[in-house]
Specification:
Blueprint (H helix, E strand, L loop, with lengths): L1 H19 L3 E3 L3 H25 L1 H6 L4 H16 L3 E3 L2 H22 L4
Length: about 120
């Protein structure tokens, strides 16, 4: 059940980013959006910790702001792996990562996700 809730949170977060940020387009097909959300979750679960460990000195040096770059790269990797989302550039991915992080955090707090 927890995995389904996490995928739905990712799907809503991706939808919010696609709605609010010009340059991010998300498929209108619900199944495709859920696949993108699942891939995004897998990318964040497996690749993000590695990227954060490798970029730890930069994260410390920038007082955590480099995590925005890590989030943007995770979004661009999801774009490369799936056809249901399109991100037009790095700065678009930065702002998309900000929106996704904020919406995901808010929904996790509201729904009681234990991550």
């Amino acid at each position: 059940m927890r995995i389904i809730i996490r995928i739905l949170i990712n799907a809503v977060s991706l939808w919010a980013a696609a709605t609010l940020i010009d340059g991010i387009t998300l498929s209108s097909d619900v199944v495709s959006v859920l696949v993108v959300a699942a891939v995004f979750g897998l990318v964040n679960a497996f690749l993000k910790p590695i990227a954060q460990v490798l970029s730890f000195p930069l994260i410390i040096l920038t007082l955590g702001l480099f995590t925005l770059v890590v989030n943007a790269v995770m979004l661009q990797i999801t774009d490369a792996l799936t056809s249901g989302i399109n991100v037009d550039g790095f700065w678009t991915a930065i702002w998309g990562g900000v929106v996704i992080s904020l919406v995901s955090w808010a929904l996790s707090v509201f729904l009681g996700d234990d991550n």
